[in-house]
TrEMBL record:
One of its GO terms (biological process) is proton motive force-driven ATP synthesis. PANTHER family: ATP SYNTHASE PROTEIN 8. Keywords: ATP synthesis, CF(0), Hydrogen ion transport, Ion transport, Membrane, Mitochondrion, Transmembrane, Transmembrane helix, Transport. One of its GO terms (molecular function) is proton transmembrane transporter activity. This is ATP synthase complex subunit 8. It is a single-pass membrane protein. GO terms for cellular component: mitochondrial membrane; proton-transporting ATP synthase complex. Its main location: mitochondrion. Pfam families: ATP-synt_8. InterPro entries: ATP8_metazoa (IPR001421), ATPase_protein_8 (IPR050635). Belongs to the ATPase protein 8 family. The keyword Membrane applies. The gene is ATP8.
Length: 55
């Protein structure tokens, strides 16, 4: 069962993980979000019941 041999796959997984954590992740985290959260107080929407014409 050659798929159980971790020799080549462990190395590939470690290189992929290191590439993500050292190169890609800092680049993604450096972007500033354009939609900053606002300090508005959230109010519940007021709804009115629907008047059905057949009732």
């Amino acid at each position: 069962m050659p798929q159980l041999n971790p020799n080549p796959w462990f190395f590939i997984m470690m290189i992929s993980w290191l590439t993500y954590s050292m190169i890609i992740q800092p680049k993604l985290l450096s972007h500033i979000s354009m939609n900053s959260p606002s300090n508005k107080i959230q109010t519940a929407p007021t709804t009115s019941p629907w008047t059905w014409p057949w009732t």
